[in-house]
Amino acid sequence: MAVSDPVADMLTKIRNASLAKHEKVDISTSKMKLQIVKILKNEGFIKNFKKVTKDGISYIRVFLKYDETQGPVLHGIERISTPGRRIYTGYRDMPRVYNGHGVVVVSTSAGIITGKKATENKVGGELICSIW
Fold it and tell me: Is this prediction's pTM over 0.85?
């Protein structure tokens, strides 16, 4: 079955695997998904990731991160802009997630970056998702 929103599908797989306390989750590969996973790694929400090829099909294997009490480090991940409703913002109006404890991922002309870097670079763009 075809997926109409592959990014939302990826976010849901990561959220569900984290809540079910899985060690890892496999996601189909695309450039946009790979950039979002890199942001998750750089911000400390996941342990690691790697590209895996199985039977000629490429996947991103995401290793999830948990705290000392085996609770997920990733408390929430939510899609903001959808295929039916695109949401854009300028750098002056960049939203903050949980007063700076979360991250907003933005697709800009400079690539897919965090909201903080978009504000520093003074570029706006499409709000992809928020992570906390």
Answer: yes
